Amino acid sequence: MASATFLILVAAASLLASFAQADLQYGYYNTTCPGVEELVRTELEAIFADDSTLRAGLLRLHFHDCFVRGCDASLMLNSHNGTAEKHADPNLTVRGYEAIEAIKKVVEKACPLVVSCADIMAMAARDAVNFSAGPRYEVETGRRDGNVSMLEEALTNLPPADGNVTVLTQYFAVKNLTMKDMVVLSAAHTIGVTHCSSFSKRLYNFTGAGDQDPSLEPAYGKTLTTKCPTEKMASVVPMDDVTVDKFDLGYYESVYNHRAVLRSDAALVEDSLTGAYVALMNNASSLDIFFADFAVAMINMGRAGVLTGTQGEIRETCGVYVD
Length: 323
Ligand code: HEM
Hints:
By secondary structure, the chain is mainly alpha-helical. It folds into 2 domains: about 25-155, Peroxidase, domain 1; about 165-300, Peroxidase, domain 2 (Orthogonal Bundle). Helices cover about 45% and strands about 5% of the residues. It has helices at about 1-20, 35-50, 55-65, 95-110, 115-130, 150-155, 165-175, 180-185, 200-205, 220-225, 250-255, 265, 270-280, 285-300, and strands at about 25, 140, 195, 235-240. The strands form 2 sheets. A two-stranded antiparallel ribbon has the order 1-2. Helix 2 (about 35-50) packs across helix 5 (about 115-130). It starts with a helix and ends in a 22-residue tail after the last helix. The structure holds protoporphyrin IX containing FE. Protoporphyrin IX containing FE binds near residues 186 and 262.
């Protein structure tokens, strides 16, 4: 009898815990906001028709959100004092805040205070990939939004653009992501651009002696110096110039051929494990494997530090002020 009571208590406790900390799930809004995923996709179609470069912007937005306090839309929050995540240096070039806010507005009309900004960001990143000719995969939903956003946390959690594989792997491990997730997710750089300032050291002062990164293929180094003369550091160049803005294997082809733009991307061929993956992907027949791997890695990233159940909040506007 006593053990039966104990079992009931344990079952009740775990039920309560599951309410407090529910898991993400596929189709979380199926009953509470049916059709929300199609609604988000339709809005995005119009947004991308207006500015196709926002596909890359929204993919990066989700990554920068997930790595700081988890995928909780804390990157969307504003601060009068300039102390929110979005004010941190690596976030100054992040784009797409207005797009998320515009989608949220439409979603709010359909289902007031039901769908989180964090889930809209995850759906938008997924659709951005698909609209760039990449895979379409299901995303888990059920995230809730945080209301804390701190500049310093962005500085300490976002991986550095000059990191080597050991360093990059550590930044990903903190988010429960593997080295494979890292080499797969880095291929998000198959779309989008980087400012010259983000890699100028590779061109003009790699070791402090006015030299170029010796790992950069010399002819490509020359092309990059033409596109990024020292007086034009605010210019941008595509990170995969094999197939600009197309979600495909062009990124791995660039990295394999020492034509990666960022040092963090170039580093991937300098480690035997990540280098083996790059070599495998430098082959047109690997496209299906890459697409499947990318979908898995994005789902893994989308689980980072999420707030669920009764944690966090669902708010009307994503970008409210924290101070
Ligand atoms: C491995 C660590 C990573 C580092 C060090 C890194 C660093 C960077 C840097 C420096 C830029 C260019 C910023 C600028 O100058 O404008 C950039 C752009 C971008 N990153 Fe990453 N990144 C990493 C991983 C990722 C991941 C995991 C994703 C998404 C899943 C991602 C998506 C993007 C996209 C799409 C762009 C282009 C944005 C645009 O065109 O506006 N990155 N990244």
